[in-house]
């Protein structure tokens, strides 16, 4: 004869498994749905990347040249060069920032190598390179 305690224990375990299965079934379904959505998105990204690569080969890189501007192609930024130019002109970082149209903190960060100027700011930096002390003082006075 089976012991009532062991029968009761087996029945409790069976009911618990049944409830857990009922609770986890919706999670399994949603997980499978999310996985299939992710897989579809990955396939779409791969197809788009191939299309971009194909279009890049057809265009021959012509789209990058107009955005860069004529001076940006020949301009190379150097943090130490900017600092040397600023000191040659006798400017503080705040004054150089005014001439370049940026904050003094931007100039400090550029000179310390923490950040790099944006491509749109290269033209102003290139213009600063060509200035004399008198020109810089005149522009600051304006």
Describe what you observe in this structure:
This protein is mainly alpha-helical. The protein has two domains: about 1-60; about 70-140, lambda repressor-like DNA-binding domains (434 Repressor (Amino-terminal Domain)), CATH 1.10.260.40. Helix content is about 75%, strand content about 0%. It is built from eight helices and no strands. It has helices spanning about 5-60, 65-70, 70-75, 80-90, 95-100, 105-110, 120-130, 135-140. Helix 5 (about 95-100) packs across helix 6. The longest helix has about 55 residues, at about 5-60. It is elongated, with a radius of gyration of 33 Å. It starts with a helix and ends with a helix. Residues about 65-70 have low confidence and may be disordered.
CATH structural fold name of the largest domain: 434 Repressor (Amino-terminal Domain)
Task: State the fourth-level CATH superfamily of the largest domain.
Answer: lambda repressor-like DNA-binding domains
Globally, the shape reads elongated
Indicate the CATH class of the largest domain.
Mainly Alpha
Low-pLDDT residue intervals, each spanning 5 or more residues: 63-72
Order of helices and strands: HHHHHHHH
């Amino acid at each position: 004869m089976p012991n009532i305690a062991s029968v009761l224990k087996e029945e409790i375990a069976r009911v618990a498994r049944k409830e857990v299965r009922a609770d986890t079934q919706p999670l399994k379904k949603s997980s499978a749905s999310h996985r299939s959505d992710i897989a579809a998105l990955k396939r779409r990204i791969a197809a788009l990347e191939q299309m971009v690569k194909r279009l890049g080969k057809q265009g021959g890189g012509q789209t990058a040249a107009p955005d860069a501007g004529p001076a940006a192609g020949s301009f190379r930024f150097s943090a130490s060069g900017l600092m040397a130019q600023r000191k040659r002109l006798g400017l503080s970082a705040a004054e150089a920032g005014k001439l370049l149209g940026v904050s003094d903190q931007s100039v400090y960060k550029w000179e310390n190598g923490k950040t790099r100027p944006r491509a749109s700011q290269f033209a102003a930096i290139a213009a600063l390179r060509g200035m004399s002390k008198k020109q810089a003082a005149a522009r600051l006075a304006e």
